[in-house]
Write a structure and sequence with these properties.
258 residues; alpha/beta; Rossmann fold; Alpha-Beta Plaits; 8-stranded mixed β-sheet; 4-stranded antiparallel β-sheet; 12 strands; 21% strand; binds magnesium ion
């Protein structure tokens, strides 16, 4: 599966999610880190391949801080912003115009005491607000409140997206990791691409790569699921290959570097 990429690295793109794919999942998202060996591999790939991009649900600057490499591109907030190699600031996607505050307004109106009581933490990411309950005393109770909030958000015309112990509230604009990937690839002279991810939002990126292949923009595509006990089944079901955790994905990167 990796052969078409390795055969012509200058015409191949490596795209990867960050949390759960190159950075192991940790209880507190602020503690996430990319292991040194993986960082070195990504740095090497960025020199050898057409380009390397990290496609994350985190703000782009935060993704860059965690990955620690300046010469790769970062698509942050699920594609709402793009930070190009060497750029100082990310540029927001134009479709966000006028919707920057939608998610924040909705979350501000929630009962903060309720959130506190079940241990849901609010992370303000700008256009997107994330509610986390990993490590809450009673994760089940937190999740049921999150489900209520999810339907409230739907009802309000926002987009609620559930991930691994996180609910994201997003404005209703057409952006996701797939649209981000579909914007990154055709702008560059690549014929092959690999994407690695561990969560539902990454399936959009898998689909986007396959659509580019069907449209003749790419000749070969490799969709890699990073499996774990809590990985949603639809990620592995939609992948060409499933590896075991971030360590398994580091193995893929190593094979690409060889
Ligand atoms: Mg992830």
């Amino acid at each position: 599966m990796l052969a078409p990429l390795r055969a012509d690295p200058a015409a191949a793109a490596i795209l990867t999610d960050v949390d759960g794919t190159i950075a192991p999942i940790v209880d507190r998202p602020e503690d996430a880190a990319v292991p040194g060996g993986t960082r070195e591999l990504l740095g090497l790939l960025a020199q050898r391949y057409a380009f390397v991009a990290c496609v994350s649900g985190r703000p782009a600057l935060e993704a860059r801080r965690i990955v620690g490499l300046d010469d790769v591109a970062y698509s942050g907030n699920h594609g709402f912003e793009l930070l190009l190699p060497g750029a100082e600031m990310p540029r927001p996607d134009p479709s966000l115009d006028g919707h920057e505050e939608d998610a924040r307004r909705f979350v501000d109106a929630l009962d903060a005491r309720d959130l506190d009581r079940v241990g849901i933490r609010v992370e303000d990411k700008g256009a997107i607000v994330a509610l986390h309950w990993r490590g809450a005393e009673n994760e089940g109770e937190a999740e049921s409140l999150a489900r209520e909030i999810e339907s409230g958000a739907d009802w309000t015309g926002l987009v609620a997206h559930r991930g691994r112990k996180v609910l994201e509230i997003r404005p209703d604009v057409a952006i996701n990791k797939g649209i981000a990937v579909a914007a990154l690839i055709p702008a560059r002279p690549v014929r092959a691409a690999l994407y690695g991810g561990d969560d539902r939002t990454d399936v959009d990126a898998f689909t986007a790569l396959r659509t580019l292949r069907e449209d003749g923009e790419l000749d070969s595509v490799a969709c890699v699921a990073v499996g774990s006990e809590e990985a949603p089944a639809e990620v592995t079901a939609n992948a060409d290959l499933t590896v075991d955790g971030p360590e398994g994905f580091a193995g893929v990167l190593r094979a690409l570097a060889q």
